Amino acid sequence: MKPTNPAAARVVILISGRGSNMKALVHAASQMTNVNISAVISHSANSEGLAWARAQGIQTEQLVYDAAGGQTRVQYDQALAECIDRYQPDLVLLAGFMRILSDEFVRHYTGRLVNIHPSLLPLFPGLHTHQQALNAGVRVHGCSVHFVIPALDQGPIIAQAVVPVMADDTVQSLDQRVLVMEHKLYPQVMRWLAQKAVFLDEQGKVGFTEKLPLQQFYADTEYVS
Question: Which sites bind N(1)-(5-phospho-beta-D-ribosyl)glycinamide (predicted)?
Fold first, then answer.
C-alpha cells in the first residue's frame, strides 16, 4: 500500500457489485501521488468489490438499504451522505452504483460527484445501453464520464471514449469492448479532477485550466474525445 499524501485529493468510491471500475481506479491511484482512495462504500449485502477493496487495505463501508424496515430513499441517502462525509472527500466517484440518488444528495456533492455511463451520452441513457446501441444500428458506441446532476444521466460530460460497433457484435462482445475503455477513461478523469485541471464552473458547465491542453484529451487515452 502506498504512503498517504495528506495533500492528495481524498476520493470515496461507491459501488454495487463486482466493482470492476473501482478496481481500475484503485490500481491507477496506487501510481498517483495526488490521489488517496479514502473509502469504498456499497449498498449491497453481497458486494464482491467490497471484499476486494478490503483485501487491498482500503477502508470499506456496507450500507444496506432497508426497504423492508420502512427506510425511505431520502432517509437512506441521508445516512449515505453522513457515512461519506466522515471521510471529508474531495471527490465521490460512482463506479457501477446502481441506485438513483435523491436530488438533495446530488446537490450536496455538486461539483464533486462523478459517474461513468456505458454509452456516448446523451445517447442511450438508463439501463441496457449496449442493447440500445445494437437496436439503433449505430456504428460507434462507448462510455462517458460526467458530473452528476439531479436529472439522470444528463450531467455535464467531462470526457468520452469511443469504440467501433462490429456487424457481428452481441451485447456481451460490445460490453467487453466498452469496458476496456471505461477502465482507461475513468482513472484518467480522476487524475484530471484531482489536479483541478477539470472542474464544474458556476454556470454548471465543465471548465478546464491551463494545466490541461485540449489535445491531452485525445493523446492520453485511445479513442478519447
Answer: 19-21
